[in-house]
Protein 1
Amino acid sequence: MRLTKFTDLALRAVMCLAVTGPEESVTTRAVAEAMDVPHAHMAKVVTRLQHLGVVEARRGRGGGLLLTEFGRRSSVGWLTRTLEGEEEVVACEADPPCPLRAACRLRGALREAQEAFHRTLDPLTVADLVDSPTGPLLLSLTGRPLL
């Protein structure tokens, strides 16, 4: 299974925010630069993460992004399911629809595989993603001193 670019960026953004301190905020631009992606793309990702309650954005001087406690404890499986949506791995109902869709066993098998993928990620939290060696690497990307 392959995640969308949007979900990939969201996971990288929450990982970047997970290594910052609770009183330390980072701008969307800084996250985009650290992840080497366009600011506009990261801004859309951050907006979606805000709506989910994973990220808090503060405006004004000293403002920026903070990973919420809910975001830190969030299951990676839940996050990927939520960001990816309910779309199936194969487009059986696309235009034109697949002629095998009425009696196809592949569709069900792929749906099960997709759910197994997410179930594997369920026990993993965002906080787990930044355990060593990832956390120190993320700190170096954001220009922050290693702890």
Protein 2
Amino acid sequence: MDITSLILLGMAGLGIVSNNTSISVAMVILLLIRVTRLTQVFPWLEKYGLTIGIIILTIGVMSPLASGTISLSTITSSFLHWQSLLAIAIGMLVAYLGGRGVTLMGNNPTIVAGLLVGTVLGVALFRGVPVGPLIAAGILSLLIGKS
């Protein structure tokens, strides 16, 4: 077994130990793609995987609105409470950071590995969610002065 497969297996193990199904499933799927020699899928995943993931994440976030769980009056009232206004501001900041992160990751592929490892470790060890690379890259872009 090659080192890349061992790393994927180790990260899947971290997901199992930390009871994080999303990391475990993602690593096992990538490992299966790798060992079944379906490697022609990887360029497609690298090119479209992030976009597909963001679409699925957006569907999940917007589902309460689409299902009627969150009404128009609830959305309207969110402009009347300071916590909701703060949530709107933070949502805008995170979206901005994510945009900067996409640009930084595209322009500096050498930092992608560190961001990915840090995100996977954060998900596995701290029960985070794997949206971290974009936001982490956005924060990093602010720190190193690149957009």
Protein 3
Amino acid sequence: MAWDEWEQLKAQAVERHTTHMQINSLRGGDGYAEPSGSGGGTGTLKHKGGPWTQAAGTADDLQTSTITAKVGLRRAHDGTVGGLAGLSSLGALKSVLTSWDERLGRVREECSSLEPKLRQVAVDLAEVDAGVGDSAKAVTVPGTRRGE
């Protein structure tokens, strides 16, 4: 095998094993993202606080529903002590009540901790977006008009 052929085979092997980067399903002509940014996207990145705010609302709702569930669980066990006195199942029932009471309490605490943090993420990202947008508007490019 000639030296040139060997070099050509090595180059072809490197091309086959080169790692291509793909960002957000943006594909170029060969199926991979193009480094020049000409992959067909709009060229803008937009953020919305809605998902963060919605997640915070869900955490708040879950916090409320766990409190309601704990109250309902306790209420359902009222009166069982008298009716099941002397049965071995009373101990198991009390154990289950205690276990679920603790679990629901931990869920409520976690949701209580998460809710304000999720709301703050929405606020922080909106402020960053506004700051970046203002900075970008301050850049003037000769020969162009804004809005083009």
Protein 4
Amino acid sequence: MGSTRDGLPEGLASLTGFQLSKCGWWLEQRLEEELRPLGLRVRHFLVLAMLGSSDTLSQQEMAGYLLLDPTLMVGLVDDLEARGLCERARDPKDRRRYSVRITEEGAGLHRRAREAADRVGAEVFGPLSDDELRVVTRAIGRVMEPFWAEQMVRPRRKPVR
């Protein structure tokens, strides 16, 4: 049997990207479980999180931030709007755009969902000290800076096949 580290074959344990990917997957799975009683999925929570910290956002802007196809964003907003958690209105400056804002009910549910997300984060990152967690957060932010900068300038077009 090959060498192992942290319960994984050394070839996987030594791949930082693999470990980060699986950490993200684990966080998402745990958060899905915690959000289920609130009737939310992770993507719904992320939309509420964006709206909770903004006056309004367009569906296009939110799709860009989440790196989702705009048609998926329409469905997410449809779901939230049907539950009275957000409101959508035509942008008076551009009738093709919809501006979306969170409702009071949506803000309340977002607070409860954020508490669930914080509990999951505390569970997953529990082995780290506060200082270690700050270092990890800053380091990931630095790694992701060029990616996010590229996402902000890249046109949102479907690839030509």
